[in-house]
Amino acid sequence: MNSWYLGGLLGPIRAIRYVRGAKSGVNTIHHDVVYRNFWMRRINLRVHPLAEFKFYFDWRSTNQAMLYSSREREGLPIDGHQDPGVDPAFEPWTVVNSPDGGFGVVYFLPESPLFDEARFFYTDDASFDDAPPTNPNYGDEDDAAYGDHGLWAVDVNGSNVDPIPLSIRVYPVCIDEGSATLGDALQELAQNPIEVDPTMQDISQNAVRSLNAERDEDDVVLSWDSVALADFYRVYVSAWADLAPESWQVLGEPVEPTFCDAEAALAAEACFYNVVIVGPDGSEGGW
């Protein structure tokens, strides 16, 4: 009821989405990043003082669904019947397993002077109405809580400037997959990601990156921009583009940045060309 869409980027690898505002906190920022294999949501919660806040998933009724956590390693049945004795201490991860598919979640809610305690929220009650007392007309479509689970913070001091940072990572789980072992692995992956140290490679100084092929009657004429480090050029051809360099055939070694493959346009099969430079010492440049 009080939010502004700040924009987003959508691409083949991920989507990025920002939303600012909530009814109880106009400076709250939701930041979603959707990767190929998981969805990450970061929330900088800026809100007035509250007795508590909960951020949880409301699961639909389904057959044979189970909820796993770091303490409930044998699983809790998601059946609309409350499970007694569930520990409300904070959980670092949960996994839902069902015949309809499920998901694993890793939770991050660091300690903050802006709230007193972080807890684990879990309710499995087919007749549960989660409407806030101050908003009795709130609707959750099914008026039920099948395996509702997530973050829970109590005694919130609140601030319109300083945020309470919380975040989740949600991983899709295939049909009838998911266990406590998977939850442990997701937490390890989220907290200790694989470190990658990329090294920038210079490919502009010794490689031909402007190769052009045009038909001239029965011939194929190749041309490219000259490369200053070239003593001459070596033209390769192959019937397959993905062969290793040593499997390509040498067509010629022109000095100038052009080459004619005579009658190549009449060939029944497609062919692929590559041109590399050859330096004064006889070594080839990059492909």
Description:
The protein is mostly beta strands and 287 residues long. The chain is built from one helix and 18 strands. The protein has a nine-stranded antiparallel β-sheet, covered by helices on one side. The mean pLDDT is 89.
SSE arrangement, N to C: EEEEEEEEEEEEHEEEEEE
* Terminus-to-terminus distance: 56 Å
Q: For the largest beta sheet, what order do the strands appear in spatially?
A: 1-2-3-4-12-9-8-6-7
**Main sheet: strands, sense, barrel:** 9 strands, antiparallel
Fraction in helix? under 10%
| Count of β-strands | 18
Sum up the overall morphology in one term: elongated
Beta-strand content bin: 35-45%
Uncertain segments: none
Structural class: mainly beta
Radius of gyration: 30 Å
Number of domains: 2
User: Treating each run of at least 4 consecutive H or I residues as one helix, how many helices?
Assistant: 1
Task: Write the SSE topology.
Blueprint: E1 4-10, E2 15-20, E3 29-34, E4 39-45, E5 50-59, E6 65-69, E7 76-78, E8 93-97, E9 102-108, E10 115-125, E11 145-156, E12 164-173, H1 180-191, E13 212-216, E14 219-223, E15 232-238, E16 249-252, E17 258-261, E18 272-278
In short:
This protein is mainly beta.
List keywords for this structure.
287 residues, mainly beta, Immunoglobulin-like, nine-stranded antiparallel β-sheet, elongated
